[in-house]
Design brief:
single chain; mainly beta; Neuraminidase; four-stranded antiparallel sheet; 41% strand; globular
Length: 399
């Protein structure tokens, strides 16, 4: 076994000790079973995971590995579990260009085809010079500015933007990258075979709804969604899901302006479409505080929304709706509440064969109460890992 694979944690062996180490609360509507780091290489900043079940039953997790949150050297890696998330192998590389890969998301077809949507950013020296002085240590900012000013890096402007790759063999091999649209946690396949995604990076300040053909190419924007108060909060990082009724729901991150990720206005917003994504109802605020959202439709028709919680107590949360429209935060499940700061989140969930849920996210794997210097961040701290929590939601009425 390679040294990299040896670093992939076997969380069954970690057991209860790992669960307690990240400060999980137990008195919740859902019951946490276990929590552990599933990928934690020393000194690497891991973030923004997405998860999907391949047609053969394997679980795949895509995420970014980099030096720091705003470093210019991100690459998108892939982990695989063949035993319902108990052990993980990898990583394999999904996308690694000379510029910075920031995020990824899966869309799975009923025939087993799996599309991964990726975003690559070409940074500039001006970007690093414009960051607040306490954002990072000056040596790091100087080094990154020099790296993105190098001729080889500047020559890669054509790589900036959205890409996608496709697999038909459960993620063992992937097609060459082709141009796409950004989709943080992927999109959905409509009953007519078209691929529907919600994007935000190239449509800012709008959310763009895009439709591609059955071959996953030829994206056409068919709708836009705007923040009702763009000067107060911006929309971004949407995720969509198809309900059994045919309704498509969209949950949206609201970012307070000026930027403040602990602002009371950072509730999730929602809209829905009953005509395949062509038209959407006026967006409305939910009572769920946190971001960004990931939606999962259970086999019994209920809808799970998972989201990061970047205020005390820092961690990850999830809430279940019976109809995908009404949400009750009193039924919220706290998956983790012991993180040392708000550099965390992007949880994404999948239903396991035994009816439990696996939620993956990024967060420093440290004991509750740990203090980490973040202004600027200490490069010697325990950086965020890709974490996983297995939990059991409360049964639906009548089950």
């Amino acid at each position: 076994m390679s040294a990299v694979r040896m670093r992939v944690r076997r969380w069954m062996a970690a057991g209860l000790a790992a669960t307690c180490a990240v400060g999980v609360s137990w008195s919740q509507p859902g019951t946490v079973v276990r929590t552990a780091a599933i990928y934690q290489p020393p000194g690497v900043y891991c973030a923004w995971p997405s998860i999907a079940r391949a047609a053969n039953g394997d679980l795949l997790v895509a995420f970014t590995a980099t030096e720091e949150h705003l470093a210019p050297d991100g690459r998108i890696l892939l982990l695989r579990s063949t035993d319902e998330g108990r052990t993980w192998g990898g990583p394999d590389t999904l996308l690694d260009t000379p510029i910075d890969e920031r995020e990824s998301g899966f869309t799975r077809d009923d025939d087993g085809r799996l599309v991964v949507h990726c975003w690559a950013t070409r940074h500039t020296p001006a970007f690093y010079r414009g960051l607040p002085r306490d954002a990072y240590r000056s040596d790091a900012l100087g080094r990154w500015a020099a790296a993105v000013d190098a001729p080889a890096y500047r020559a890669c402007s054509d790589l900036h933007g959205a890409w996608q790759r496709t697999t038909t063999d459960n993620g063992r091999t992937w097609s060459a990258p082709v141009r796409s649209r950004d989709a943080v946690h992927g999109g959905l396949r409509r009953p007519d075979g078209a691929l529907l995604i919600a994007s935000y990076r190239e449509d800012h300040p709008l959310i763009g709804v895009y439709l591609a053909g059955k071959d996953d190419t030829g994206y056409v924007r068919i709708a836009t969604i705007a923040s009702p108060q763009p000067d107060s909060f911006a929309f971004g990082e949407p995720h969509i899901a198809l309900l059994p009724s045919g309704r498509i729901i969209m949950m949206i991150r609201a970012t307070a302006m000026p930027y403040n990720d602990r602002d009371p206005r950072c509730v999730l917003w929602e809209t829905y479409s009953d005509d395949g994504g062509a038209t959407w109802v006026k967006p409305f605020a939910t009572t769920l505080w946190g971001f960004p959202p990931h939606l999962l439709v259970f086999s019994d028709g209920r809808v799970l929304c998972s989201y990061g919680y970047r205020r005390v107590p820092f961690g990850e949360r999830a809430c279940i709706s019976t109809d995908g429209i009404t949400w009750d935060p009193s039924n919220e499940t706290v998956l983790s509440d012991g993180a040392p700061n708000g550099d965390l989140g992007y949880p994404a969930s999948v239903e396991l064969r035994d009816g439990s849920i696996l939620t993956v996210y990024y967060q420093p794997p440290v004991p509750a109460g740990t203090i980490q210097e973040m202004v600027p961040p200490d490069p010697a701290r325990t950086k965020p890992a890709i974490m996983g929590t297995v939990w059991r939601p409360a049964l639906a009425a009548g089950r």
